[in-house]
């Protein structure tokens, strides 16, 4: 069941309500190995929209899971060696760990995002990551998410669906805003739009 959930989350990655991308130039003191692993994580995920059939998505997800596991090993080594020092290190390491497959991965990701936020309280991406890792942990425990950052898409459905199961009273829209997240109703509309986009992506392979 957890493997199925992880695959669903993988298929949803390209459509997540991520904060606006920013130029991510390494600064003195940033760990170069973590920066390299993060860059590889982002480059690989950028290829997800190009997978235009269910077979291609499955193959992509298998390879992505293997590479994600290698990147998590790099983060764990950095933690053991106490190489994470800057807010950027913690943000990148948290991003890698939140692409894990187990509740323990998501707990580590949440801790990293939280530490990063203490170093850079105004960093919107770190606040978003703290919320997103909470949602992923809850989903991995078969609980509804709180913030609504993780639409779970089913590419096997006809048409594809993107579900957003949220404990509606867990957090308010004001708390979402503080974490850089849109109001819940907007998130639901975005999930519907993602399902439509996924359907168009997979439908491209059926075009004459």
Automatic annotation (TrEMBL):
Keywords attached to this entry: Lipoprotein, Signal
Taxonomy, superkingdom: Bacteria
Signal peptide: 1-23
Key word Signal present: yes
Protein name: Lipoprotein
């Amino acid at each position: 069941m957890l493997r199925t959930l992880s695959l669903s989350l993988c298929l949803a990655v390209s459509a997540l309500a991520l904060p606006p991308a920013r130029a991510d130039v390494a600064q003195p003191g940033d760990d170069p190995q973590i920066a390299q692993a993060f860059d590889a994580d982002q480059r690989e995920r950028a290829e997800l929209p190009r997978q235009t059939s269910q077979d291609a998505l499955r193959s992509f997800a298998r390879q992505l899971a293997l590479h994600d596991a290698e990147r998590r090993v790099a983060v764990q080594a950095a933690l053991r060696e106490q190489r994470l020092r800057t807010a950027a290190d913690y943000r990148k390491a948290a991003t890698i760990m939140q692409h894990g497959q187990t509740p323990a991965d998501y707990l580590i990701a949440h801790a990293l995002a939280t530490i990063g936020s203490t170093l850079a309280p105004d960093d919107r991406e770190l606040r978003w990551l703290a919320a997103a890792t909470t949602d992923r942990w809850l989903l991995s425990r078969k609980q509804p998410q709180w913030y609504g950052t993780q639409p779970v898409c089913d590419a096997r459905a006809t048409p594809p669906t993107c579900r957003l199961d949220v404990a509606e009273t867990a957090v308010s829209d004001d708390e979402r805003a503080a974490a850089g997240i849109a109001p819940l109703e907007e998130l639901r509309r975005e999930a519907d739009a993602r399902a439509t986009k996924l359907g168009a992506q997979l439908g491209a392979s059926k075009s004459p």
